[in-house]
Design goal:
Blueprint lengths: L10 H14 L12 H8 L3 H13 L3 E4 L3 E4 L3 H28 L3 H14 L1
Antiparallel strand pairs: 1-2
Helix pairs in contact: 1-3, 2-3
Amino acid sequence: MIFNTQSTMPIYMQVAEWLENEILADRLLPEGKVYSQYQLAEIFNINPATAGKGLTILVEKEILYKKRGLGMFVMGDAKHRILTTRRSDTLTKMAKEIVEEAKRLGVMDEDLIELIKHIQKEG
């Protein structure tokens, strides 16, 4: 992964999002060990403190947990927690933005729904 330095999203948030995506893709499994902040720093060529901050976010969200002296691990229900949060927060936010833009452009509700169905069919 290459971080988007032009993004308004801080790099530590991008680290957290990348780890969540790894969990969603089953590349990090429940109860499995996660990269240390030093491994993440080396992989992404970033400061270890920045990588650590990304890990801390996921600990606070109860996606990861610490085992003293052993490192960080994925919570058993982490994938479910991520999916629930993204569906309720992220998808709702994106849908609101699309609806607002459609209103600005004068797109009728039916046309917007047809557009979404068309995009879903494409895949």
